[in-house]
Design brief:
The protein is α+β, with helices and mostly antiparallel strands. It has six helices and 21 strands.
Amino acid sequence: GLDPLTVTDIQLDGNGSSAFSHTWDGAEFTLEYGESTSFEVNFTPAAWLEYDIDLLFTSNDQEDPELPVDTLGTGAEDASYEQSFTQDYFDEVDVMWVVDNSCSMDEELQEVRDNFAAFVAEFSDLELDYHLAVITTDMDNPSHSGRIQGAVITQDSSDPSAEFLTYVDQGSSGSGSERGFDSTKAALSEPLISADNAGFMREDAALSVIVVTDENDSSSMSTSSFVSWFQGLKTDNEKLSFSAICGDRMTGCSSGDVWSGSFLQATGGDKYIDASEDTDGIFASICTENYDEALQHLSLTAAGMTVSFILDYEPSSLSDVVVTVEGSDIINDSDNGWTYQADTNSIVFHGTAIPGPGETVYVSYPVSDSCN
């Protein structure tokens, strides 16, 4: 406007305003048309937070007698930043295991048999309403080809572990053309889903598919085509995951030695790994020496839980990171504690330290970054 503007007050307004100050001396001042004045606003945060307050001007302006100016500040040098997470989970989950029953799978299936207790134990501890079923990668044998082998296992089964070990032991005389994608699609589509496999997949339950193989997928469909079909099974894609225990990407893997009689060898399972990444599932090397941990993580992923929590910022000092679960301090330990994964900037929990359903995780860590 053309009339003189008289400013009578300048206030810092909002939660966090104590982190700001200004150099205005408090004296009323008047600005004629075309005139201006200046003063400093200082930002001295005590913690690594995002501050959003108003610089509130009071004047004789007839339209805006109180004018708020948005005032933002972020961060502090090596201050403590705190994040909280809640461990989500699904009450109901349907898990389909797709097992390679070709001639090369003897050693690998024995590892699964020996360590499956870790998978079932997690489901039992979580008290989930679950369905477990087993199919094979064999699409040449009409009695397989996506058909559930044995029965659907539930939490009401008399001995879930024993039943699974019986059904997962499909031998090694199946087709050498391992078609995990085709088998999964056949199992969860008509006519099988309403006939041989009826009662497995529930409308409101989460769905998890886990493939165990030492070969890449030989199905005619591409990974993108499979993932597109798979995600169409549920309206909520967060209730879907595809995971794989297979050979490492591209080069495959091996473990043990031929002299001991225990030698595992697998080609790269690239298609399966891609599908797991596209559906927020997980990949575990079939040559791993830690099958119990791999199966534990698979069970948690199937239940909608996680062992990895991504941080907003990169910690400037790992020795000063503090992690608590439900108020209890968790130690930095790769067996029963937490570790930091630099490539994903994540806190990863292990063993007995993995947060339970609905539990709250707090992570406090120092951050060094430039102020905005």
